[in-house]
Amino acid sequence: MPSEQSIQQHIRVACSKGDCRLYRNNCGVLRDHRGVPVRYGLQPGSSDLIGWRSITITPEMVGQRVAVFTSIEVKSTTGRVRQEQQQWLDAVQAAGGIAGVARSVEDAQRLLAAKPDCVPGAGHQQQTEQA
The pTM is what? Predict the structure, then answer.
């Protein structure tokens, strides 16, 4: 069974082409030389891969291209989404971004291929959490 790290790397490489760019978002805490905790990453619960997918907006909007914020939480086949991770995905989706869980390159490609307006909230979320 592939690890989350392996799945994540394959998704990042396979999907960061054309109009899409995905970057690794490490989150955590380290102590500096004085022992003071220093947090890094967007915030606790933010997804493993973040980036954007450029789209062409409607003719009513002068046909400009915009970047749609994208947040992909990578899980193994048995990995579980933590509450703060789900809250992050919900917030990105509610703001009109593309957000969801991917357990394979194919899952990530489905997320990125979906139109942002295909579900209520203007975002797209695929949740395939295992029990």
Answer: 0.63
Question: Phi and psi at residue 4, in whole multiples of 5°?
Answer: -60, -40
Is 25 within 8 Å of 85 (Cβ atoms)?
A: no
Rg of the Cα atoms in the chain: 16
69/97 Cα distance (integer angstroms): 5
Per-residue pLDDT of the chain (131 residues; tens, 9 = 90+): 999 999 999 999 999 888 888 989 999 999 999 999 999 998 888 999 988 887 777 788 777 777 788 999 999 999 999 999 999 899 888 888 899 999 999 999 999 987 655 433 333 344 433 33
CB 11 within 8 A of CB 22: yes
